């Protein structure tokens, strides 16, 4: 029985999203081992960790240019190979300089994959003529949960960081081998530009992604600190805030395409911003752990579909070609993850962490209004 090529591409795109989430999540439980092995203090580790984000930011525009000339398949395959080659080295390198260099390459591979898989997802969704982007992004989250779980289990058996990275790399390699034939090979015309500064509606879409990713970064870097230092929650329990956020975001993205198909893009983004902003306000203002966790969960529900909708709009707008717009939007979003937590820290230092997180909630609501307006305008085109 012949396999429908479009369905094969849809499954392969889900695998493409799963792989980087699965691989990069392995790094989180390896950080304490790397810190001990290299002898870094907290400040030095913070500087080295910046190499991961820097590599991603530098690679995203280049990945878009390469995808335009070589096709998504080659760039995604090359990115996966580099990612899997660098991963075991993160368990081996003995000094800070080498760790920084490997993290730079690892981050570049993840960033290139992130950018190119979204370019492919836009084309696959367009050909399917129905919302699919939220489901694709859900598989990144599923991959993150699976990768963190597998690495933690392997480390818990006492086999060490190298065994954990090799196990993850082997599974990711098998998944890549099974799906890469259905990754797209489309190329832009030879006379098409391969780089351009973002302009017009692409800047607005990027701004919405920046704020949504900023809220995600706030949960990753500040949730546990807030619950422990402001609400007095025990350190052992403070991580449950991010768990609640991540689980509801993943679950909401798994059903998000159906929601978008029924409600439309603009109402989905507007409702997401309202739910997310109220959820973050509840998480910050609620006095008890249970209510605060409910707020974290609502924030995950609210943020879940905003970014997928924005990527779909970036691929469909006519101000810039998709192979230029997607890297620009990806870079905006990743900048929110990197710069957002630092901005929150500066505001918290000058005012308070409560004020800083409430400001994020207000900004998220404003960004959702902008995103809904873009979605509504596109629907009328």
User: How is the biggest beta sheet arranged?
Assistant: none
How much helix, percentage-wise, in residues? over 70%
Uncertain parts: none
Overall, the morphology is globular
Question: Into how many domains do the coordinates divide?
Answer: 2
Which class of secondary structure composition applies to the elements? mainly alpha
Q: Output the helix-strand order.
A: HHHHHHHHHHHHHHH
Estimate what percentage of residues fall within beta strands: under 5%
The tally of beta strands, per DSSP, is 0
Number of helices: 15
Quaternary state reads single chain
CATH architecture term of the largest domain = Up-down Bundle
Distance between the termini: 40 Å
CATH superfamily of the largest domain: MFS general substrate transporter like domains
Rounded to the nearest angstrom, the radius of gyration is 20 Å
Task: Summarize the structure in short.
This protein is an all-alpha fold.
Describe this structure in words.
InterPro entries: MFS, MFS_trans_sf, MFS_Transporter. The chain crosses the membrane at residues 12-31, 43-68, 75-93, 99-124, 136-156, 162-183, 195-215, 235-256, 268-287, 293-313, 325-347, 353-372. It comes from Luteimonas kalidii. The structure is a single chain. This protein is an all-alpha fold. The chain has 2 domains: 5-182, Up-down Bundle (Growth Hormone, Chain: A); 201-379, Up-down Bundle (Growth Hormone, Chain: A), CATH 1.20.1250. It has helices at residues 5-24, 27-38, 42-70, 72-89, 96-128, 133-156, 161-179, 201-229, 235-238, 240-263, 265-285, 289-303, 306-316, 322-350, 353-379. The mean pLDDT is 87.
